[in-house]
């Protein structure tokens, strides 16, 4: 699908701004995103005024906007990378594409600029096949189809709700891996998209994703906060936690999640070694988190994403709460998020 065929009135680009000067970032993305509406959410801890270039259809939201819309106590939801979730909350578009401000357009193996927006929308507007794996990857890509033995009853697929892109240069390694392999860089561009199988978990990163807001918007939230959480990628787990919630919900609601293209080029920010102590808490928590999500099953009465999040919160509090208080706090934040999503969902905002 070319960018010309995308209905830009259905797409919001959400950017969480952790740096004040976005001129270089936006100018590099200009050929790809200038046709779309941008929601830029400034990290509430960033005191400088944002610098953005001319020629973009954008709305900038600061701490004062967050306090006005959500309430002063709610701004703690949106610190650091979590500021992006405020953009998800106030958007009114069907599709959201979320790109971090340390990511730039990448090039494919032929040196061509990758249109990340077009590829994300292609992933979301073609069916997913989570219930039977196609060994030629995404059968809905041009030049591909279903392989011999693939059941015809499953070939229509299901609605794609999430598109998880990848990164060239600095991949999304954890702090221990990046510290031990400080020169490790991802230079391998793989021209492939796959549907993640049903009941298979994955660490969904918020760095370069797109999703159908109407279908799964409430499943992406800033709930899990580490005790010594910082502002760098290695020091947070909020997207990993919400991503696992989102995958469980997609499986329950028979929605698909795709991974692979599009790539972005990710630049370095922060020190993995300095972040190691802060993230180690999250590394240990994953040993509890993964078995929980592997075993959780949602009742048939949960028919919406909001219902599912509330049900997950209940079992998180019951099963994981006694393990560590961080889980009880996460469960409470999930319930609070659903209330916020419903309350804010009926409001209107300038430019949205």
Automatic annotation (TrEMBL):
Subcellular localization, as worded in the UniProt entry: Golgi apparatus
UniProt keyword Transport present: no
Any one Pfam family match given in the protein's UniProt record, by short name: RGP
GO cellular component: cytosol; Golgi apparatus; plasmodesma
GO terms of molecular function: UDP-arabinopyranose mutase activity
Keywords: Cell wall biogenesis/degradation, Golgi apparatus
Domain of life assignment: Eukaryota
Similarity section: Belongs to the RGP family.
GO biological process, one term: cell wall organization
Protein name: UDP-arabinopyranose mutase 5
């Amino acid at each position: 699908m070319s960018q010309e065929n995308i209905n830009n009135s259905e797409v919001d680009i959400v950017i969480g701004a952790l740096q004040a000067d976005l001129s270089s970032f936006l100018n590099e993305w200009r050929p790809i995103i200038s046709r779309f509406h941008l929601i830029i959410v400034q990290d509430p801890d960033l005191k400088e005024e944002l610098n953005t270039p001319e020629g973009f259809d954008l709305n900038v939201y600061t701490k004062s906007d967050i306090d006005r819309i959500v309430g002063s106590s709610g701004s703690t939801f949106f610190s650091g990378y979590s500021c992006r979730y405020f953009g998800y909350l106030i958007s009114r578009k069907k599709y959201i594409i979320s790109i971090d401000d340390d990511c730039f357009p990448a090039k494919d193996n032929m040196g061509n600029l990758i249109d990340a927006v077009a590829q994300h929308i292609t992933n979301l507007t073609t069916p997913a096949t989570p219930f039977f794996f196609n060994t030629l990857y995404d059968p809905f890509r041009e030049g591909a189809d279903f392989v011999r033995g693939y059941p015809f009853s499953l070939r229509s697929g299901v609605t794609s709700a999430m598109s998880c892109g990848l990164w060239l240069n600095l991949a999304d390694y954890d702090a221990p891996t990046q510290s031990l392999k400080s020169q490790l860089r991802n230079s391998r561009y793989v021209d492939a998209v796959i549907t993640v199988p049903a009941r298979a978990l994955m660490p969904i990163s918020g760095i370069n994703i797109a999703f159908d807001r109407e279908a799964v918007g409430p499943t992406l939230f800033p709930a899990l906060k580490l005790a010594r959480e910082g502002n760098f990628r290695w020091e947070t787990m909020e997207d990993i936690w919400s991503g696992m919630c989102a995958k469980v919900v997609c499986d329950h609601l028979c929605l698909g999640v795709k991974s692979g293209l599009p790539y972005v080029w990710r630049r370095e920010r922060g020190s993995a070694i300095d972040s190691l102590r802060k993230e180690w808490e999250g590394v240990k928590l994953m040993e509890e988190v993964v078995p929980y999500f592997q075993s959780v099953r949602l009742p048939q009465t949960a028919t919406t994403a909001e219902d599912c999040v509330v049900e997950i919160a209940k079992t998180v509090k019951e099963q994981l709460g006694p393990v560590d208080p961080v889980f009880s706090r996460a469960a409470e934040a999930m319930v609070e998020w659903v209330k916020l999503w419903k309350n804010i969902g009926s409001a209107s905002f300038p430019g949205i």
